[in-house]
Design goal:
The chain is of the alpha/beta class and 347 residues long. The protein has 16 helices and ten strands.
Length: 347
């Protein structure tokens, strides 16, 4: 039986290759456990000078996490979902704090858990195939795996815009926003990986030398609108700003937001607001784990998965159905810290 994740040595580097192509390499608990174990072994291996993360085959780097399992668990006691989040966030934190340089190749779909795998890396390579997004509000979830940390640190209000709408960024846009450090043609990736395996001390130079012309970053044309229309941390204000704007772009964003979960859009805005001043990434993970443990058992997540993934009718019935119906008390409950014995801890 082939493993869902391959961990191997390549020259003076070690490699993590996601190997679950039928699920676009979506992460499950066993994959996160195996990656954690490999990172721990390589941490003290003097022959490993860098770590490369990519996917073995298929059309995407990583489409996220095992959403079906999370929903099935959430409909019961939530224990399996919490175990997944706990392990995944330990992996995210280990990557974030890793002493050896990590290179993530974001070739193709990079969403949810794929963002959590790639963004801690010192070197993040985008290509013409990259499609990066945090689309969780569309299924009643929120941008986790460090989303509150990474998105809150993007220019202006871009992070809030991405968190609420789930907008997909291409490779050039990732580079312009700092979510990627380099832009390579996909046909150059094999050469990049081989060169890095031979000379891991020259990663930046290798990637820079292989970089080619970068297309225009289309999102930059809307920066003024994004910063103006998404300026508030209050969801009702964002809706009001979009409703008052007569432009076509604003109308499109308003239509998009009306399909998302009002509850988890409010969760996302608070997550980014607090994430911007979170003292450490460990603190961010601890908070996101508590929020995830609560959200995964709430109606909107179970309904969102039903509508988008199970029945595929794309007609979720959110409860409450409007931003006004989501009270501050409900959001406070979702953000309540877990008791010491249940809270997230790093590996």
């Amino acid at each position: 039986m082939t493993s869902d994740v391959l961990t191997l040595r390549d020259g003076r580097t070690a490699r993590i290759r996601l190997n679950r192509p039928k699920a676009i390499h979506a992460l499950n608990t066993a994959m996160c456990t195996e990656i954690l174990a490999a990172l721990e072994a390589w941490r003290i291996d003097l022959d490993v000078e860098a770590v490369l993360i990519d996917h073995a085959e298929g059309r995407g780097f990583c489409a996220g996490g095992d959403i079906r399992m999370l929903a099935e668990s959430g409909a019961k006691d939530g224990a399996e979902a919490r175990a997944f989040f706990h392990t995944e966030y330990r992996m995210n934190h280990r990557l974030f704090t890793y002493a050896k340089p990590i290179v993530a190749f974001m070739d193709g779909i990079t969403m949810g858990g794929g963002v959590g795998l790639s963004q801690p890396a010192k070197f993040r390579v985008a290509t013409e195939n990259t499609r990066l997004a945090m689309p969780e509000t569309g299924i009643g979830l929120f941008p986790d795996v460090g989303g509150g940390w990474y998105l809150s640190r993007l220019p202006g209000r871009t992070g809030q815009y991405l968190a609420l709408t789930g907008h997909r960024l291409d490779g050039a846009e990732c580079l312009a926003l700092g979510l990627a450090t380099h832009y390579l043609a996909s046909e150059a990736l094999d050469e990049a990986k081989a060169s890095i395996a031979a000379e891991p001390q020259r990663i930046d130079a290798i990637l820079t030398n292989l970089s080619r012309h970068v297309p225009d970053a289309r999102i930059l044309a809307h920066r003024e609108e994004i910063d103006r229309l998404f300026s508030s941390d209050t969801l009702e204000d964002v809706f009001a700003a979009l409703e008052a704007d007569s432009g076509e772009w604003a109308r499109q964003q308003l239509a998009t937001l009306r399909t998302k979960s009002p509850q988890t859009m409010k969760v996302s805005l608070r997550l980014l607001h607090e994430g911007a001043t979170m003292p450490t990434f460990e603190d961010e993970m601890r908070q996101e784990y508590a929020v995830g443990a609560h959200v995964v058992q709430r109606h909107d997540f179970l309904e969102g998965v039903r509508a988008v993934i199970v029945d595929k009718d794309n007609a979720p019935r959110w409860n409450p159905p409007t931003p006004e119906g989501v009270t501050d008390h409900v959001i406070d409950q979702i953000f309540a810290p877990l008791p010491d014995g249940e809270a997230w801890t790093p590996a």
